[in-house]
Amino acid sequence: MLKFVNITAKVLNYLPVNFKNILFEVALSYFPLWLIKMIPCSYSSYLKCYFPKKGDVVIDCGANIGNCAILFSRLVGKDGFVGALEPLEESFNILKNRMKRLRRKNIIAINKGVWNDTGIYLLKVFPNTIFCKIEKPTNPTVQNNNYIPIKCITIDELMDELELERLDMIKMDIEGAEIEALQGSENTLRHYHPHVAVASYHKRDNKPAYHEVEKILCRQGYTVRTFFPPHLTTCGKKG
Hints:
Layout: H1 2-12, H2 17-30, H3 33-38, H4 42-49, E1 57-61, H5 67-76, E2 81-85, H6 89-101, E3 107-110, E4 113-114, E5 119-125, E6 132-134, E7 147-153, H7 155-161, E8 169-172, H8 178-183, H9 186-192, E9 195-199, E10 203-204, E11 207-208, H10 210-219, E12 222-227, E13 233-238
Parallel strand pairs: 1-2, 1-8, 2-3, 4-7, 8-9
Antiparallel strand pairs: 5-6, 5-7, 9-13, 10-11, 12-13
């Protein structure tokens, strides 16, 4: 199966972006859920952490152009809610326009990153790609076109801002900001006990982030496991 997925990924790279996006929309909206869970990819790894149910509330941190949000929207149904956060404006605009075109009324697209404080931070955007991460420049006094200011919010404050009274799942794929984002969600973890699915393969101090991610979740009384080496994912469940 993994070999098939790798071949498929290579084929997809040759397709026009808009056509590829539509393929993902169809697959994530209509493919049987058992099949999506079987495919070895980031989407299925998040579902193995927690499979959202009808009426659930999900926060999707690092929503990018919205593929995961589309899947979550399908799972939680019309009575559920998905808050999809994406700080990079280029990706956010695609996300917002897709949700409008697909009439996903249970999704709110939010043009913010998640961090351990609310405010303006610098986002490093890598050339010739939409890959980016929140990072302090080496020399902040020197103008650098690779950095753009973005709005960040803690998950704790986001809960208040959205007036949410429950939270069933937090998904994170935020390019190395997982540790700070979890630090900014301690009250939420303590009071609402959401399931957590974190892409934890990003490097911090030359080590995969999952070491620290697991420590933070364990301190909150979570049971954790990290799996799926192609896209290391840390799951957290209260108790």
